[in-house]
Specification:
- With about 140 residues, the chain is mainly beta.
- The protein has one domain: Beta Barrel (Lipocalin).
- Helices cover about 0% and strands about 50% of the residues.
- Strands 1, 2, 3, 4 and 5 form a 5-stranded antiparallel sheet that branches.
């Protein structure tokens, strides 16, 4: 399942990288214009996009593993990974086993991800802590 934002289509096929394709004159570019370094195992990834209007867009993708991993990429350049939940210290952002066909859902500054046993909610850390994301 692809995601669309600002004349770009984001698609993460099984066994492949998350890729961005440009749309010009109602036509999809024949080759991707950007791709993540990470490849996503079965069933691939269904991306979600957050942005402040048409600026500062982030493409969110979940790796269907155990534990699952939430990834955030710069929408202009998918080689720039901004965050992934396995980077946090001492498993702070671990949220359980992945689930097929989950789409990160972004609402009011939080990212929600379904798992096999519940829903993880990610947001900014408290102002006194270093900037990052965590499960709330």
């Amino acid at each position: 399942m692809p995601a669309y934002f600002n004349n770009m289509l984001y698609y993460g096929a099984s066994g492949n990288a998350l890729k961005a394709f440009s749309i010009v004159n109602a036509r999809l570019s024949p080759a991707s214009v950007s791709a993540s370094a990470r490849t996503f195992t079965f069933p691939g990834t269904t991306p979600g996009v957050s942005a402040a209007g048409s600026a500062n867009a982030i493409v969110w993708a979940v790796e269907n593993t155990n534990p699952a991993v939430l990834h955030a990429y710069d929408a202009r350049d998918l080689t720039l990974e901004l965050y992934n939940s396995s980077q946090a210290p001492a498993g702070r952002d671990a949220f359980g086993a992945g689930n097929k066909f989950i789409t990160p859902t972004i609402v009011n500054g939080h990212v929600y991800v379904g798992t096999t046993s519940g829903v993880a909610r990610f947001g900014l850390l408290a102002p006194t802590a270093p900037t990052g994301l965590r499960i709330l």
